[in-house]
Hints:
The chain is an alpha/beta fold. The protein is built from seven helices and nine strands. The chain has helices at about 15-25, 60-65, 85-95, 105-115, 130-140, 145-160, 175-190, and strands at about 5-10, 35, 40, 55, 70-80, 80-85, 100-105, 120-125, 165-170. The strands form two sheets. Strands 2-7-1-8-9 form a five-stranded parallel beta sheet, sandwiched between helices. A hairpin with a 2-residue loop joins strand 5 (about 70-80) and strand 6. Helix 5 runs antiparallel to helix 6 (about 145-160). The longest helix is centred in the C-terminal third of the chain and has 16 residues, at about 175-190. The protein is globular and about 40 Å long. The two termini are about 15 Å apart.
Amino acid sequence: MCKGNLIIVSAPSGSGKSTIVNWLMQEHPELRLAFSISCTSRQPRGTEQNGVEYFFISPEEFRQRIERDEFLEYEEVYENRFYGTLKEQVERQLANGQNVVFDVDVKGGVNIKKYYGDRALSIFIQPPSVEELRRRLEGRQTDSPEAINERVAKAEYELTFAPLFDRILVNDDLDVAKQEALDMVSNFLNR
């Protein structure tokens, strides 16, 4: 079996990243896409299972694995709340012929691309404008005005990372963006 490749997708919150990635995975099985299963030091929520949604480990074990350089990328989101991508897990998925998809923040995306080079396609999905992003976030009606302001400020910072990605996809029309993402991924995997 041939080894898989890597697809890295990053975007500011509200850009449509998860919608596009989920569509590719559900509607295009021929791409053999599989999510990278991340590691976290938080407790499982609801019906989450170890090794399915995440690998759940203690903050102490997470720190030990950082010391042993076992992560492609990681972040301490809150004190003792870590998230990261284990090199060993990605290698296992690649060896099984899966094309591993990363739905990650911009810094993680840049780090994974650096590590894998030409074996990875990095796609940055961006909204047509910061104003449109604000409108989408407000339309969700899930965040307070303060939280929306924080997300917009973070998005403005994240947009500065776009030139570090292989491809930039502007999500102005979701159906067009889905097709563009499909073309980018298909061309990369069939090269």
